[in-house]
Amino acid sequence: MSRIKVITIFGTRPEAVKMAPLVKELKSRKEIDVKVCVTAQHREMLDQVLKLFEISPDYDLNIMKDKQTLTSITTRALEGLESIFEEEKPDMVLVHGDTTTTFAGALAAFYKQIPVGHVEAGLRTFDKYFPFPEEMNRKLTGAIADIHFAPTKGSKNNLLNEGVSEDNIYITGNTVIDAMEHTVEKDYKFQNEELNSLDYSSKKVIMVTAHRRENWGEGIENICKALKKIVTDNDDVELVYLVHLNPIVRDVVYKYLDGVKGVHLLPPLDTKETHNLMNKSFMVMTDSGGLQEEAPHLGKPVLVLRNVTERPEAVEAKTVKLVGTDIDKIVREASELINNEDKYLNMSRAINPYGDGLASKRITDIILKYFNIEKSV
């Protein structure tokens, strides 16, 4: 057959980071005609990644609006993608992970009877409201997908237990590890001078992110109270909190932590700055999903500020630990890592279960095999 046409769809920064190395790999194969479509569910943070990886979208739906809702994101993405699919008539659509863009992309492709490949498939918490709406976005996308690119054996088993045929599931590793091969630099100098001024050798710098929807309100308040106690009780600790732009999060964080000695409140960094801050930090505290995969690759322990995770492999590997949003538990677990070198080393030296940096090549080879095309030498 002639070249196959593949459309990749993503709309947020985490998706873009993980899809970028795959887009690059797809474009390197002469058998594949690649089109990149972004919904821009998150505008500014998405654009940072596109610039970093030098990716120019073929289609940009630019759906982000003030006070957007899950319903509005879904309907605008569906309507925009319908016309693109009618024009391009792709042989396959690739979506990633668990965002609303992911689900809308899969659904739009299903309505046009276009095969769907789901990158980072099979992650589950088994609680449809945690994380919300990601858990159901991922399950619904999995119900539609024709090929499931599972990052680990555990995620494959989740799909098998849901009745997905083993013939349609492939363990590939996680593409975020591929991305980090291009972003982390040994002697990196930050664009942000406040980060350059930190003493990473004599201070224990803790990188923090916390913004998930299920933590809004009391969860974020408890996290901030715990962080304040941690930095107050430990003179050798400094916190760098990358504060999400959402005022629901930002207002609470600044209420409790603005002006506290040893706390640095910064806006979200671009991907390269974030990865290199992680690399220089002592450890990470986060409610993010992606950081649970990224930080262990750099040997950084992660305390997860959530009660459940769709990444149990990291918990089993002891690279991350769930601490929830209970103030006392957060303080206790952080203090143990700060003050107990053996416990710190046990986590920092644990093997990351998320791959070897070759996920994008595996996925591309699988797509060619799906269409009975021999890969180029």
Automatic annotation (TrEMBL):
It comes from the Bacteria. Its EC number is 5.1.3.14. GO terms for molecular function: UDP-N-acetylglucosamine 2-epimerase activity. Residues 24-367 form the UDP-N-acetylglucosamine 2-epimerase domain. SUPFAM superfamilies: UDP-Glycosyltransferase/glycogen phosphorylase. It comes from Clostridium acidisoli DSM 12555. This is UDP-N-acetylglucosamine 2-epimerase (non-hydrolyzing). NCBIfam families: wecB. Belongs to the UDP-N-acetylglucosamine 2-epimerase family. Keywords: Isomerase. It is an enzyme of class 5 (isomerase). Pfam families: Epimerase_2.
